[in-house]
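W.,

You were right to be curious about this one. When I first looked at the sequence I had no strong expectations either way, so I just let the prediction run and decided to look at it fresh. Below is the sequence, 260 residues in total, followed by the output.
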Amino acid sequence: MRTLLFVVIVLCCALPAAAATLEELTPYFSTQYFTWQERINGRRLLKEEGPLFSVGARVGSVTDASLTLRGKGELFGAEVGYRGETQAPDPAPVRTHVTYLGANAEVDVGYRLRSAALVVEPFGGLGYRYWLRDLQDSSTPDGTPVSGYTEAWTMGYGRVGARAATTAAGVKMTACGGAKYPFYVGNTVDFAGSGETTFRPKGRWSGFAEAGASYRSLSLNLYYEGFRFHQSDLKMVQGTAYFQPDSSSDIFGMRLGWTF
């Protein structure tokens, strides 16, 4: 995974030099509504939701042969609310907060097809996402203390999709959509007294979509991004079996950018 992250970062940094024309360099700020859910046999164990914030930049270039290269890198984080329960065999309801802090990088290769009024660009690419999920200490309704803990998630994924763009009255309108699949997922937890244990949830297909408009240098985009994971295999920790349940994340966001 270190190698994958290195390749993505190098490709993003080298993107302007790798193609004939730098077409886009857009720093941006994004606000998003984030949800995270975990389930066992269809029963929801917990739900986390609240606003996240991110800053990042997008770059894009095109060759004379209409081959496009695009990259994105961002940092994100904030504190969201948590509604869940304690571990079995006697689960009790718990409310607390969860701090998220992470980074995301993507690189895509596409091919541009033009008509008189529309530009269409099928693409494929890779992404890398790393985040800390820090559950804070809390207590059950009867006052029993509940200790929080921190998870470190790492994910590599492939993505395929298409973009489209058209311009009318000086306003450029864009749309993008597709699907992605996590081919590598790791969730590392530091259990007190036994050290770190890494669970391997299994990736599932999920979707992403984006639509926006830009006028001169200012751009505004609305987007959706989903992640889906199957339950991991069991792992024994101090004689107790643990696993990462079926998990899912949904992000609805708004991105405000300025193109140089």
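Here's what jumped out at me. The chain has one domain: 2-258. And, maybe more interesting for your project: The two ends are 32 Å apart (CA to CA).

Coffee later to discuss?

I.
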